[in-house]
Specification:
The protein has 13 helices and 19 strands. The strands form five sheets. The protein has a six-stranded mixed sheet. Strand 7 and strand 8 form a beta hairpin. The protein is 35% helix and 21% strand.
Length: 475
């Protein structure tokens, strides 16, 4: 018998991932011309991909690649199968549901089953600037509820809890992830805050339910506690503060915990985190047993049968075990497909070792998380533009004569409104080659570099050592 989702051995996780990829990838390549073309260019048969090793033969993609394939919202990523494609490629459980639909209602039953499995009926916005539309079919929403129930279980929450969410209602994963976490766990939840409203909009909700859980954006958690002190809200039953967004550092977690204790929450109140990249389908969460008194955490627990997560070196695209670009494959989902999507989010470490806190065997993201680490917003003439440092790296590494390089985003000079993107290289580059490199970098970075300087090898090596890498944001 296969163990529950969070107690399987690594060998079981590997077998299930293999079966999932072999069912899902052929459908993705068949149902979406965009993905079919990518597999074709890589000379890769999606039906032969049954391991991470095989999956890594498909080059990763970035947001700029997707936006270019279909414009804002990227409809190229939606899975829109024809009936004959479904018959040839769908997994056995889908074929079985279609057969049941035909028995119940003939051709109308088949049509309704296909709609439930594949037609997007819900969207959330992804990408660094909300320019990607991530679609969900009806069956995807069932998966989302299941993922929400899992996150609630990891957090130690259930149907006896009462949640008030201060996460603003929006078309973003943060809001929908919390909404479906509550639905999946059958807890009673209120979501009283709209986009643009101050965090104090939620205060009145505390008089309506005996609140045990508060979900709040991480950067507003201390402020909300202070607002509730002034309101006189009764918080003695609050035992979990769920911070939504980039997981707090140890010091931040302690400040949040102390603020809520001072506001009247239970002395045993726990500060836990829920986060995922904006293109993901469900929020990942921490376990209470994995958060220590000093604010450290054993990390965010993933769903290995609902997605494939990797870390890649942002400069080469090669797989790494630590300090990498979080790369996401939405395995098993039917509305929108993402395969080896480099999110641009820095993650310190990905581990498959059992959690020392709760003993769950699922993979975990451990340590620091920095969203959009390699996609900083750069101010130019009073407007912000998104730079992709990874695109600059690709250009520099493929340029003859460049032996060593670094890219820095620096603050503007005094009284200026334009931040600087400075590229330093060491190697044999003449003036003409440097100008040509600057033109190529503008395409790779998405913004024009302020300067391309040729410097001595020794000086550049020293600078890279000082900043801790080839990328630096010194603003």
């Amino acid at each position: 018998m296969v163990a529950t989702w969070d107690q399987r051995t690594q060998a079981e996780h590997d077998r299930l991932r293999s079966a999932l990829l072999q069912r899902w990838l052929p459908a993705v390549a068949s149902y979406s011309p965009y993905w079919g073309e990518r597999f074709g260019r890589a000379s890769l048969d999606p039906a032969a991909v049954s391991s991470l090793t095989e999956l890594r033969k498909l080059p990763p993609i970035r947001e700029a690649d997707i936006a270019g394939a279909g414009g804002v919202g990227s409809p190229a990523l939606l899975m829109r199968p024809k009936e004959d494609e479904v018959k040839a490629m769908a997994a056995g459980n889908v074929i079985l549901e279609i057969a049941r639909g035909i028995r119940r209602a003939g051709m109308e039953g088949k049509r309704l089953t296909l709609l439930q499995e594949y037609k997007p009926i819900h969207l959330h916005r992804g990408g660094r600037d909300d320019e990607l539309a991530i679609g969900y079919s009806r069956s995807d929403l069932d998966r989302l509820h299941r993922a929400g129930a899992r996150s609630a279980s990891v957090l130690g929450l259930g149907d006896t809890d009462y949640m008030i969410s201060a996460v603003p209602a929006s078309a973003a994963l943060d809001y929908w992830g919390i909404y479906h976490l509550a639905l999946g766990s059958s807890m009673l939840a209120l979501h009283p805050r709209s986009v643009g409203e101050h965090v104090d909009r939620v205060v009145e909700a505390f008089a309506l339910v005996p609140t045990t859980v508060v979900a709040v954006p991480v950067d507003e958690a201390v402020e909300l506690a202070a607002v509730l002190v002034e309101s006189g809200a009764q918080l003695a039953r609050v035992r979990t503060v769920l911070t939504v967004g980039t997981p707090p550092t140890s010091d931040e977690r302690i400040r949040i915990r102390d603020a809520w204790r001072a506001a009247g929450a239970s002395e045993a109140v726990r500060v836990l985190a829920a986060w995922a990249p904006p293109e993901a389908r469900a929020l990942w969460a921490e376990c209470p047993a994995g958060v220590a008194d000093d604010g450290s955490s054993t990390g965010l627990h993933l769903f290995p049968d609902l997605q494939v997560v990797e870390l890649l070196d942002p400069t080469t695209g090669r797989s790494v075990e630590a300090d990498g670009d979080l790369t996401y494959t939405s395995a098993g989902w039917h509305g929108t497909a993402l395969v080896r999507y480099q999110t641009g989010d820095y993650v310190e470490r990905l581990t498959t070792q059992p959690c020392p806190g709760c003993q769950r065997t699922v993979p975990r993201l451990v340590g620091e998380v920095v969203p959009a680490a390699w996609q900083p917003a750069v101010l130019s003439d009073g407007e912000y533009y998104r730079a992709d440092l990874r695109g600059g790296a690709i250009v520099l590494q493929s340029t003859p004569g460049v032996d060593l390089w670094r890219i820095e985003v620096a603050a503007p000079p005094a009284r200026k409104k334009t931040e600087r993107v400075i590229v330093q290289v060491a190697g044999a580059l003449g003036d003409d080659a440097r100008q040509e490199l600057a033109s190529s970098l503008e395409i790779g970075l998405g913004v024009a570099p302020t300067a391309v300087d040729v410097v001595a090898h020794e000086a550049l090596e020293m600078t890279i050592d000082e900043v801790g890498g080839v990328f630096a944001d010194t603003r």
